[in-house]
Sequence to fold (383 residues):
Amino acid sequence: MIPYGRQDISAADVEAVIEVLRSDFLTQGPAVPTFERTVATYSGSDYAVAANSATSALHIACLALGVGPGARVWTSPITFVASANCALYCGADVDFVDIDSRTFNMDVEALAEKLETAARDNRLPNVVIPVHFAGQSCDMEGIDALRKQYGFRVIEDASHAIGGRLGGEPVGSCRWSDVTIFSFHPVKIVTSAEGGMAVTNDRALARRMQLFRSHGITRDPEQMTREADGPWYYQQVALGFNYRITDLQAALGTSQMRRIDDFVARRHALVRRYDEALSGLPLITPWQHPKTYSAFHLYVIRMREASERNRVFRELRDAGVGVNVHYIPVYLQPYYEQLGFSSGYCPEAERCYSEAITLPLFATLTAAQQQHVIESLAAALNR
Ligand SMILES: *Cc1c(COP(=O)(O)O)cnc(C)c1O
Fold:
């Protein structure tokens, strides 16, 4: 089965991990700050806080922005559950803004309408979490204008989008947001096995995220409530977690970052081939906003009807093509239905979900494999 995504590990990546295994620190050593500096520099942000997953990074970003019981967090329904769960971890309420069916990203007009109603009801969100679906940036300028008008904070879930750009600006520059989150899961653009990172230009926010990443413990006199008892002294000043990434993972991540632009360029070459080969078929290929340069984590096509999607999906799987579907609208998960959500809540999201198929796309996908995907899809559509 050709998977929909997978990692590309080089001999240099293996060497980088082995070097850490032979060093003094397997965790809490120098490889973590090196990884953080590498990603901060690449994304054009001032501070980076690495964590053991993007899920953890989303959680500490919410906590650092003061999300707690009674707070309201809005995100996209077409995302992985972690984009919404992070708010529930903090005891906050979650709500969903429908998507633009061309990009599968949060629809800024839908957001503006929902904000207008929320302002009347005195129920404005504290934090909005747009998700850069498939690696294509949301309309961050539009979201930023609303952020200024209504005074909420913004966390970009860029789990798909490291290596992408908006108007020439790298995703992660945080020009239009408070924090940006990256994931380094093996199916994403670059990997550290498990791992995530929060980048920001706000020093105080970075320090609070560092605190929540490691038990709420600090060794920094500036963050303490009283003078140190001695050189061994540390204080727990908040309730944090153990969300640390290991040096093994960080070294892998740093090594992978050397090839990020090659990975994204390779994805673009594969996308051009898909776009060209699929142009004559009865389906919709992924639309790209002229201002964006996607990292192309995913290549998601849309069928004309849900029944067609299900049949084509089955036939592709039978042909050894490991297609997938991104995503089941989060609020249709039983856990969220039990919170009061039900079908019909975000009609565009539900329609896109019912018609979508994710085709295999990763740096090491060969021309022969891609040809097999294309021919299998054409055959399924001609039946
Ligand atoms: C993968 C992903 C996450 C979670 O990433 P982990 O590193 O696996 O925790 C969060 N949000 C989105 C949109 C993702 O695709």
